[in-house]
Amino acid sequence: MPELVITVARFGFLILLWIFVFTVVGVIRRDLFAGARSGRLVAAPRGIGASTGQPGKPAKAKRGRAAHQLVVTAGQLAGTRITLGEAQITIGRAEDSTLVITDDYASARHARLLPRDGQWYVEDLGSTNGTYLDRAKVTGPTPVPLGVPIRIGRTSLELRP
Amino acid sequence: MTAAAVPAASPASTGEQSGVRLARSRRNAELSLLLLAMVLVAAYAAMVEAKALDTITPDFWIPAAALGLVFLGLHLVIRWLAPYADPALLPAVALLNGIGVGFLRRYDLAKATPAEREDLAVFAGTGGRQLAWTLLAVMLAAALLAILRDHRSLSRYAYTLGLAGIVLVMIPAVLPSRFSEINGAKLWIKFGSFFSIQPGEFAKLALLTFFAYYLVRKREVLSLASRRVLGIDFPRGRDLGPVLVVWLISLLVLIFEKDLGTSLLYFGMFVVTLYIATERVSWLLIGLILFFGGAYLAYLLGSTVGGPFANFYDRAQIWLDPFAEPYDRGYQLVQGLLTLGTGGLFGAGPGGGQPALLPEVQTDFIFAGIGEEIGLFGLSALLVIYLLIVERGLRAALAVRDSFGKLLAGGLAFTLGLQVFVIVGGISKLIPLTGQTTPFLSAGGSSLMANWLLIALLLRVSDGARRPVTGAGGPAARPAGGPPEQLHGAPTEVIRP
Predict the structure, then answer these.
(1) Where is the composition biased (Low complexity) (chain B) (predicted)?
(2) Of A10, A127, A157, which to mutate for an interface test with B (greatest number of B Cβ within 10 Å)?
(3) B187, B196, B235, B259: which has the fewest Cβ within 10 Å?
(4) End-to-end CA distance of chain B
């Protein structure tokens, strides 16, 4: 074998090796963007159908003013505010809840708030002591009007515009 | 009331929607990457023959084709059984494995007499054996994918696997040295003179499954009850129990099996799964302090008491100054360093090195042997490929929705990374050299099979993570009654008073 061919092949091999690496990185990169799109798309929770409107576009509020903040009005976390986005809010003692409440009467995964078409719904996740919307016990996904207290143990939460 | 307020859609239509938007299984990308990897493996084989034999034999492509076929088989199995699995894992691992087989074949050529070189059978020598092991290991990986349709079902056997893992770790330690010792480390079970298995490689997977399961159950206690010292949350004294037990086991491994690498691997594996489970930095600190304290203690005891610690003391001495006895105890490490140095930036070209001069080049020092021929430029490509495999594993851990899967994938990916660090750090004199195998490159059936099983688990978890969430009908159907799964994947914003 002529020396020149071998030298060319040697460097060609190394370059091809790096081309492989960068192709893999390219596949991963495209994959990351696909993953980012999928992150927004969660399955419809039990009891509520997904919005039948155009997916991807943020739904507009149908009536009244939309809620933009969740405020804790009573309990240990009184005064805490969470800005509402498009994601659901989970409430409970578990560390991975959106709102971690340290309330003796709260369960690890107590309740959650989820938006559908600009309206927020509260759903009890099988808690021990129950979730109350104003005075009524929450059994299924229930729409939450602005300013009406959601009670979980000693904690009270309200949606504010 | 609710039904009237919300326009209800059937779960089926939701699933269809997400199915259309997410039907990117990327299997074709995997196939083309796999073909590119096999072209690289064949090119490597051709260049080895061109340089070492001065001619390219007409059947140089046979090992590459055999590998390509079996990887293609695994690709088809993935298409069928895990269609949403990560597309980058299989090609990356296939390339490493192929280069490994190619290098071992090249090592056989270096040892063979000129007469034998011309017609080296496909399954002859170390390279041939490695090729056969690869075929077997890939088949095992496919079988695991077929048996294990959902990674969560693995948690049912967690305690059995944990026990099996501990037994596998213990066997070489209690066997007489005659049956378990090779090169001063008691890590093997020897059957006869040429066949031996390394049970620790499989124990790694079994123990990790157990750790993941145990920590999922205990994470709340371990992460919630804590004291705050210097801005870091430290766990309560009594919660330290399990980590101390594992630390003790890893020290016993260090003492009785005389292997720092395996010990570091088990302990690191546990500490990192603990860290992933609890998100407490204090566990990493505690782990590092315990490990370095233990290793230093073993070193001190080795220099004064000797006995079971003497081997570790020796290795640490070699590491501190390999050139003190370059022809005696430090010979292997010195030769390894010189080999890497000879390779330089671009290497001597495949087939251009002298791997026969390096002891244990087919196992521990394969990275140095390959480095001599492809240089720093090629070695860093291989390291980046390892990095990408680990990254894909961690990515699957981030994306998967259940806690057990998160811990399992995160732990598996980290273990693979740690093993590469331990051996590459060892041969490049960053840490004391220990007898770890380089995953997918080193000759050895146990290591190859265990690591392919690891990849099969990662593929399974990544399939679960990337599979579009369908309604109740899909294979990833959630158990009826329990809280919906996506809760655990919801973005978390912890708010403290």
Answers:
(1) 1-13, 470-484
(2) A10
(3) B196
(4) 37
Tokens of B138: 């890939």
Chain A residues 86-125 with a CB less than 8 Å from chain B: 87-88, 90, 94-100, 108-109, 112, 116-117, 119, 121, 125
ipTM of the complex: 0.81
Provide the β-strand partners of residue A90. A112
pLDDT tens string B223-259: 666 666 666 666 666 666 766 777 777 677 766 776 7
**Tokens of residue B172, six digits:** 């070489």
Q: Which of residues 45-64 of B touch A (CB under 8 A)?
A: 46-47, 50-51, 54-55
How many residues does this entry show for chain B?
497
Q: Roughly what angle, to the nearest 10 degrees, separates helices B403-427 and B260-278? A: 150
Instruction: Assess contact for A128 and A111: CB atoms under 8 A.
Output: no
Q: Record the pTM.
A: 0.74
Query: Over its length of 161 residues, how does chain A's per-residue pLDDT go in tens digits?
Result: 678 888 888 899 999 999 999 999 988 887 766 544 443 333 334 334 333 333 433 444 444 567 778 888 888 777 777 778 777 888 888 877 888 887 778 888 888 888 887 788 888 888 888 888 888 888 888 888 888 888 888 888 888 87
Residue with tokens 């395996």: B262
- Best CA proximity match to B347, nearest among A2, A17, A21: A17
- A37: tokens are 């799109």
